[in-house]
Amino acid sequence: MAAVAVQISLDSSGVCSYAGIGLTAVGNTNLRAKKAEQTILGKTLDDKVIEEAAQAASEECKPVDDPLRGSAEYKRAMVKVLTKRALKRALERAKGGV
């Protein structure tokens, strides 16, 4: 099962000043989605920016087909979905939400 972890910090104007995006179970090793992180750094996180970061994360991972855990295509699609969810939740928390 693919998993995504996100940690962000926002500056006083709501711009992303730090981003950490980790991916697991989508390749031979865990990885940091550096292209996806760069996509959001220095930007206000809106739906468009989050979509771009999620796409970048899905392109960065190197999943392999597995008859028990799903195809590489499925895992890549899940990374995109999970990255969007994790970014939205991290954004909510960074703004002071629960």
Automatic annotation (TrEMBL):
Gene3D superfamilies from the UniProt entry: CO dehydrogenase flavoprotein, C-terminal domain (3.30.390.50)
Which keywords label this protein?
Answer: FAD, Flavoprotein, Oxidoreductase
Superkingdom of the source?
Answer: Archaea
Q: Which residues form the CO dehydrogenase flavoprotein C-terminal domain?
A: 1-90
Instruction: List, alphabetically, the InterPro entries matched.
Output: CO_DH_flav_C (IPR005107), CO_DH_flav_C_dom_sf (IPR036683), Diverse_Substr_Oxidored (IPR051312)
* A Pfam family annotated for this UniProt entry: CO_deh_flav_C
> In the record, what terms sit under GO molecular function?
oxidoreductase activity
Name of the protein in question:
CO dehydrogenase flavoprotein C-terminal domain-containing protein
